[in-house]
Amino acid sequence: MTTIYHNPDCGTSRNTLAMIRQSGEEPEVIEYLRTPPARDRLIWLIGQAGLTVRQAIRQKDTPYEALGLSDPSLADDALLDAMLAHPILINRPFVVAAGGVRLCRPSELVLDILANPHIGPFVKEDGDVIIDAEGNRVR
Q1: Which residues contact 32 (CB under 8 A, 6 or more apart)?
Q2: Which of 2, 11, 18, 95 registers the highest number of CB atoms within 10 A of its CB?
Q3: Which of 41, 47, 53, 37 is nearest to 101 (CA)?
């Protein structure tokens, strides 16, 4: 079962969800702004994706600067506390699939972990071709 931690207002998240569905799966969709992951799950997602806590924080259009999170002396626990208090700080979309866990930025990273990455032609919302008409991934 594939799970996506999704923000429907985010184009990257919408594109990722569309690719999962085009692969033939209907994932569990968790709108993480409404239902944030528990602390231990967030730590697990970040670790399984091969990221540091700081790499998993979203800076753009968030209270990142206002909360002083750019301070390099802040420990992971303080960053996690902020992410749980303000879920908009959790970068997205995290996807858990057959092939592992990824922070799918850019969205096409999801193809690396799907059980069926051969989804046929795919064009992102912004018009970028990810998979051409012949089924070749465009890089």
Answers
A1: 5, 6, 7, 87, 90, 92, 94
A2: 95
A3: 47
Q: Tens of pLDDT along 3-23?
A: 999 999 999 999 999 999 999
Helix, strand, coil tally for the chain in percent (to 5): 30, 15, 50
- pTM assigned to the model: 0.95
With H, G, I as helix, E, B as strand and everything else as coil, classify residue 35: coil
For the four alpha carbons of 41, 52, 12 and 88, in that order, the dihedral sign comes to positive
Does the residue 7 lie in any domain? yes
Question: Does residue 93 have a cis bond before it (omega within 30 degrees)?
Answer: yes
Active site positions, annotated: 10
**Tally of structural domains, the chain:** 1
With residue 130 as reference, give the H or E element that holds it.
Answer: strand 129-131
In a domain? residue 136: no
Look up the CATH number of the domain holding residue 108. 3.40.30.10
Nearest 5°: the CA angle 15, 21, 23 is 105
Residues 21-68: tens digit of each pLDDT: 999 999 999 999 999 999 999 999 999 999 999 999 999 999 999 999
